[in-house]
Design brief:
By secondary structure, the chain is α+β, with helices and mostly antiparallel strands. 30% of the residues lie in helices and 35% in strands.
């Protein structure tokens, strides 16, 4: 009740009777004492500019930086950037693969205008984008190279590496067989810890990492470039594997020693003629069934 009367007094809403009643209370006497004491207090002068400077210093010292980016958005942007970088590296290192299928030869040109012809059943991989920096290619099978004048690159195979400089050469790498022939200029053949320099007309045959033959050649290009495969003292199974590549046929044997050695050649343009040049000198017989597959058998 006394608080209500004091409230009315402060708002000038109290009646004379209520004022007399309020003056008789302790709460009114306390109010009067506080009012008299505070009347002697003075408020210090307020300097707005100085206060603003002090406040600014305080904010700079104590404030924390609040990121305007949502961390999820930041992760999204980082993922996009990573994808772009990955895509660039992928494209830069992307390999180009050229394949010659069975019964097919394929010609193409490298970025430096060097010419390549792939024999049947062969494959080459290289990078177009990084060719100027990484002048290497991988060969599985057989290919003839005519290197542009002044250009150089390495041919990698499972058996060894052939390094070239403005030359023409042939590389055959099948299984453990590695045969390199230089037709013009010079090439370096590196296998295991051995380095062989071949000049025009030189040829080397390597089997399972061992040199088995070094000889001279008189031709200007390998025979297969003219649709003919030639062999010198090769096992019969090796000759027939080449026949299958050139004609896309399946050959089976009966009563035959497949390791019998063969020297000769066969054409790529006529299967019957090719089989005759292989079988007749060796006393063998062959048949070609309706599906085009071949059976070669001995006299017995």
């Amino acid at each position: 009740m006394n608080e209500e009367l004091l409230h009315k007094y402060l708002n000038n809403e109290i009646t004379e009777a209520e004022l007399e009643q309020l003056k008789a209370t302790d709460i009114f006497r306390d109010y009067i004492q506080i009012s008299e004491l505070t009347s002697y207090l003075q408020t210090p002068a307020f300097n707005k500019e100085n206060a603003w400077k002090q406040l600014s210093k305080k904010v700079k010292k104590d404030s924390k930086v609040i990121s305007l980016f949502n961390y999820k958005s930041l992760l999204k942007y980082a993922a996009v950037l990573a994808l772009i970088v990955t895509g660039f590296l992928y494209v830069t290192n992307l390999s180009t693969t050229i394949t010659a299928s069975l019964a097919e030869k394929k010609s193409f040109t490298l970025p430096d205008q060097s010419e390549v012809v792939l024999n049947a059943g062969s494959k080459i991989k290289y990078s177009k984008q990084s060719w100027d920096k990484q002048r290497t290619l991988s060969l599985d099978g057989e290919a003839y190279f005519k290197v542009a004048k002044g250009e150089t690159f390495d041919v990698n195979t499972t058996q060894g590496v052939v390094s070239v400089l403005g030359t023409q050469f042939n590389v055959q790498s099948r299984g453990t067989h590695f045969h390199v022939t230089c037709y013009e200029g010079k090439v370096a053949v590196v296998f295991n810890t051995t380095n062989i320099q071949l000049s025009a007309g030189d040829s080397v045959i390597i089997e399972e990492g061992e040199i088995i033959s070094q000889q001279k050649v008189s031709t200007l290009q390998p025979g297969w470039m003219f649709d003919e495969s030639s062999f010198e003292n090769k096992p019969l199974w090796w000759v027939i594997e080449e026949l299958q590549r050139q004609y896309k046929v399946t050959v089976t044997f009966e009563n035959i020693d497949k390791n019998t050695r063969f020297t000769g050649a066969f054409t790529h343009t006529n299967l019957d003629a090719a089989l005759k040049t292989i079988c007749v000198p060796m006393g063998l017989t062959y048949t070609i069934n309706q599906n085009g597959n071949v059976l070669i058998y001995g006299a017995n």
